[in-house]
Structure formats: C-alpha cells, structure tokens
Amino acid sequence: GMLHVGGVRTALFNWLFARKNGGVFVVRIEDTDFERSTEESVEQLKRSLRWIGLEWDEGPEVGGPHAPYRQSERMELYRRAAQKLLDSGAAYRDFATPEELAGFREEARAAGRQPIYTGGEFREMDPEEARKRVEAGDPYTVRFRTPREGQTVVEDMIRGPVTFDNANLEDFVLMRSTDTPTYNFAAVVDDAEMEISHVIRGDDHLSNTPRQILLYRALSRELPAFAHVPQVLGQDRKKLSKRHGAASVEDFAARGYLPEALFNYLALLGAGYAADEEIFTPEELAERFRIDRVSGNPAVFDESKLLAINQVYLRRKSPEELALIAAPLLVESGAVPEEELQSDMPRLTKIMELLRERIGCTTEIPAAVGYFYGGRLDYDPEEFEKQFGKDFVQDSFPELYQRLSSLPEWTEEAIEGCVRGLAAEKEKGARHLIHPLRFATTGRTVSAGLFETMQLLGRERCLLRIEDVLEKMKQLSKPVS
RNA sequence: GGCCCCAUCGUCUAGAGGCCAAGGACAUCGCCCUCUCACGGCGAAAACCCGGGUUCGAAUCCCGGUGGGGUCACCA
After folding, report:
1. Residue A420 phi/psi, 5° resolution?
2. Catalytic residue among A242, A350, A474, A478
C-alpha cells in the first residue's frame, strides 16, 4: 500500500547499510495477500522509493540473479518448501475450521489462558489418516510444529540478544488452505533463496523473528543477521498515521517537501549520528551509517524540523532550479497563465532569487509569487483602510505616483531615491510611505525588499496598481487623523 | 492481560564510570540588523522517569517500579 514514512526510513536504513558495506539493496514485493495487494499499490511503492532517491540493486523491473522478485510469482518455491517440512515432520496438516479456531481462542480467553494453538488432535494425527482426509478434499492448513520447550534467541544488531520462550509460540500457519504461503513462511523461504545476509526491518517484526529462526533451522538454512528498527510516532506518541496530517511519502511530496530533505531528515531520525552537523548528502550519510548506533527507542516525527531542513535545501538550490520547480506549480494553481511563464523564465528566475530565503516548502510558492503577475489586485478592505486611511498617505500618494511615473529609469536605486526623497521633503520617516506602497503594489503587508520587488514588478504594473489604489481611496470614508 | 522492546531538554540526539553543576540541532522566547517578512548574529529558558543497589565515584553497570511502544490472525 502507501509507503509510510516509518517504512521509508526502514528502507533508507537498508539502503544506507548496503551502501556503507558494499552490499546489495534488494526490493521484494510481498503480495501473497491478494485482497490487499493491487497493481496500483505496487506502482505507488516503486514511485515513492524512487522519488526519495532509493534505487534498488535487485528487484522488480531491474531484475537480478534471484528473479522473480514478486512472491505471487514464486508460489512453487513455497509449496516445495512446505512439502519438505511436511516430509521431515517439522510441519503437519491442520484440518480445524476457522470456526473451531475462533472457538478455541475465545474459550482460552474466557478461561484467562493465553490462546496458544498447538494443533489439537491434528498435531499428532496419523499421517495415513491425514492423507485420507486430503484425498477426500477436506481443506487444511500447514502448520509448523513449534517446539513446546526451550528458548529461541534473536541476536539483534541493535538490541543484542532477545530471548523468547518457545512455549509462548503457537503452531503458526505456513500454508493457508488456499495453498498460498503466509508472510512468515514466504519471507524465510525467499530470504534464504535470495541469499539475504542482513534483514533490517520494523520492530513490529521482532516478535515474528523467533518463528522465522525456527523455520530457517527446520529448512537447514543459514540465519541472516537481524536488526529491528523502531516505529516512527506522531506527536501524541501514537503510530504516525494520516490522522497526524501526513504519513506517507506521497503526502509529504504533496505538501511541498523536497525529496532530499525528507531523505536527510528521516536518515537522521533515531539513527544515532553525531549531533554536530545535520545536513548530509546520501553518500555522506551512508559513509557514517552504523546499524548498531540506531536507537531502539521509537522516534517522534517532528515536522517543524523537517521544514527547517527543507528550507536549507531550498536555499541551496540555484534560482534557475527554483524557477523550474516553481513554473509547474504556478500553472497548476492557476496563479500564472502558462504562456506568460514560458515567454519569460529569466524573470521568474529573478523572482525566485528574491524569494528564496522566504520559502519553507514549495507549496508556498504560488501564494508568494502570484502578485508578480497579472494586473490589478484585490485588497483586503480592512487592511486597505488601515494603510490608506491616514491623511499623510492620502496627501502624498498622488505626488508619489507622479514622481514614480516620471522616473527616468525604473531601477531599484531610482525607486528608492524617489520614495525616500519624497518622505524627507515631507519630513516623515520613509516607512510611512514604504508600507502603504508595499500594500498597494503587492496587495500584501509582507514581501521582499520593496524597491527590488517594485523593480521586478515593472513600472507599468506598479503604476497601474497605484492608480487603482488612488481611485479606491476616494471611496474611503472621511480620513481619520 | 501474556510475551518482547525502550526510557537524557517540547522533539531528534551527544554522552559508552570520573573530562557533565550534561553538549548540539529544531521549535520557543528576548535582543541586534532592518521598509515588513525572512535570512543572519547574539543571548535566554529547557532534560538525565522514580526507588534501591554496585563503586572512592553513575546519566552511564545491576535489580525493581512506573511510563511509552510493539505483538499476540489462514495480514504483512
């Protein structure tokens, strides 16, 4: 399904680990659950991975020595492995119906016991009888014959040894009655078959690991090294979800975050890097990555920190790059007609240079840039009154307009000289003209420096807007002093 | 509830027995710069969950409690 940020972070750690150690990063599609797995979700996953810059060395589309990399295309493998376990006695057939199982669990719960299913009568059923029932067409699952005693130890690269009592593990299902494998089984068969040396995954899998270790042993396969990285939590310390505003890679892309910023932030989150520096390229991150430094503590996702990092990356982009990012956003949002943009990319480049320091994420661009295009503006009436209600402003604006329109050249310096000159003659601070003028020409109370903004706006557009304001001023109620 | 993991400023973390009256970053709050906003500069506030041990000495080791997280399917 959607690639959750917790999931990308895990993928990122795998990528970093593989890069650092000269390994191979493999992507495998685990689609044995036909209900949940759709073509679209697979595409979405690949898109998200690529967007953030995680290219895989082996996997779907790129291929590799252990293709195919999609479990739905490897069914024979799992069936053979299941048969092998059946033959060796490591697994058995369970003919219990879903209703019977539900009944068993309910009963156990009611009696205050843990519902650990160990196959009931089927665990020790005579193979001959089992065969008869198979021939009769009775549905069954294949279950693992979990040892009832002893312990299984997971040697985790992050946490050290983690011990589980086998008695707490039930006889889990290997093959469903539909003759398809469950996650635990397929994952082990594939990891063994694909020669996976290091399994780095979310810590929601830690409790699956003893089962998988038992399976490796039953299949006489060598164990990979395991590392379980914690989940990513929301501010309320609950698992991050759409409830928190954004949770998937696509959400963050849509919110205007740069892939390299998300990459950088996620790689830092709980990874135990030294805290003196925080902006790193993927290569630098890989160079410094140490799986044993990853924190076992679940990390809280902090969007304000992501934003800060995003700003750094935005500022590092050249005005040309920013213009290229901005153009489609401006067109999509309807802020600027496409023809107008295409005919004058150099101007957009200059605009972006001016605004670069003031943008936190790319979604802010249309609002920040919009007033550089088009003619007359809509003014907030309340703010309009505030800006132009004063006598001084009303008195000096017509003259300001005259002087601006007769300026020999429309440069930042000329405009500044003009405005400051008039203010000085009137023995007023320049800010008394600057603020209303900013509002008149941009329709906003905040912008980049007024004079450079006006220069980029162009004389024609500025004068038009001032004329418009002069006109609207007349309708203002009696000036208050 | 059983089992498992985890525990330093609001958040991410540095810290691996003395260098820590705990450092950095983001966020917050001041001040400076200034035409507003942002950038930048300077500064402030802010944490070792609690209780027992071990030790000359503990944020660092051990035990217990508490708290948070995960997991208990014919889902992955």
Report:
1. -65, -35
2. A242
